[in-house]
Amino acid sequence: GSGLYDAALQALRSGEIQNHDTQLDSTFGNKLYLESRLIPLTMKESQGELMVVMHDVSLYKKAEIQLQRFNQTLEEKVEQRTQQLEAAMLAKDEFLASMSHELRTPLTTIIGNGEILGESPLTEDQRNLLIAMDLSSNNLLSLINDILDLSKIEADKFEIDYAPFDLTVLLEEVGQMFSVPARDSGLAFEINQQTTPSHQIWGDGRRIGQILINLIGNAIKFTEKGRVAVTSWVDDSLYFSVEDSGIGITPEVIKRLFTPFVQADNSISRRYGGTGLGLHISQSLAKTMEGHI
Questions:
Q1: How far apart are CA 90 and CA 3, in angstroms?
Q2: Do residues 196 and 234 lie in contact, with contact meaning Cβ atoms separated by under 8 Å?
Q3: What would the pLDDT profile of 187-225 be if each residue is shown by its tens digit?
Q4: Spatial separation of the C-alpha atoms in residues 264 and 268, rounded to whole Å
Q5: Above 80 in pLDDT, residue 267?
Q6: What is the spatial order of strands in the sheet that 187-193 belongs to?
Q7: Residue 240 is inside which H or E element, if any?
Q8: Which residues have CB under 8 Å from 43's CB, separation 6+?
Q9: Pick from 137, 148, 217: nearest CA to 177
Q10: d(CA 3, CA 209)
Q11: Bridge-based pairing state of the strands 187-193 and 47-56
Q12: What pLDDT does 46 receive?
């Protein structure tokens, strides 16, 4: 072909070896792929001698073409699958947002009306029913919030709202929240603030409070007698510890402690309730805030 002829002329004129790829159609309808190496030998005026070495690389080229087609098909399938997953994730987010609104609104009404009803004269049986209704409503609301938080974490859409907050006020609010449940459970409940900063702390106080609420709630839930103690201190970072005299946990179970929807064993779920989401969400929150549990 003209391409091979041009390469031959270039080799003779320059005196340098030239390489050329040629594609031919055979008489059997197949394509042939040749690699040519044109080596100039002598050159006298307008005449010269040239050695051409050809290699049939048809098998290699055909395999290369098939591989390119396979990769292209694979990329198209991956792109299609990615779009399907993104669409499914968007649909799930929209569903959860809608579910959140549809469930939270009546639940908030039930909880609010229950609080109002609790201020009126009730018989002992009626008050026990009201307490059970309030506990169930708050547990359901907590479950909805956990599922929504998990969805945001999986979608990498969990936002941290950094702002100055007062550590002392945060611990006082947490203490007020759990003092009555701890007392009703016959537990000693302590909050020890070893370091009182002279200034506000920069961080997401609401999310830090969410982690503490989960850890303290677990401590009270799994402790039948004794104490629950919360300690905070400031060194190069902000630290919290939550200790209890509860049922404890084996080293084997600790390995899967932060796995979503997993609890120590099935008897834990039957006896104490819960979904196994709280610790996973707490750990994810801590990591998002560049901390750890």
A1: 54
A2: no
A3: 999 999 998 888 889 999 988 998 998 899 889 988 989
A4: 7
A5: no
A6: 187-193, 226-234, 238-244
A7: strand 238-244
A8: 12, 15, 49
A9: 217
A10: 75
A11: unpaired
A12: 56
Between the two ends of the chain, the Cα-to-Cα distance in Å is: 72
21 Rama class: left (phi>0) / alpha (psi -120 to 50) / beta: beta
Amino acid identity of residue 27, one-letter, is: T
* 38 token code pair: 């044109």
The residue assigned the tokens 């946990």 is 249
Contact between 181 and 220 (Cβ < 8 Å): yes
Token pair 């042939």 is found at 32
User: How far is residue 286's CA from residue 277's CA, in Å, rounded to a whole number?
Assistant: 14
Place of tokens 């929504």: 148
| Cβ-Cβ contacts under 8 Å for 247 (sequence gap 6 or more) | 222, 223, 224
% of the chain at pLDDT higher than 90: 23
Q: Note the Cα 148 to chain centre separation in Å.
A: 13
Q: In this structure, what DSSP letter does residue 237 have? A: S
Matching residue, tokens 């004129």? 13
- The DSSP secondary-structure symbol of 200 reads P
- Strongest mean pLDDT among 24-33, 71-80, 261-270: 71-80
Q: Find where tokens 């008489």 sit.
A: 27
What gap in Å lies between CA 185 and CA 87, rounded to an integer? Answer: 47
Assessment of whether the complete model's pTM goes beyond 0.70: no
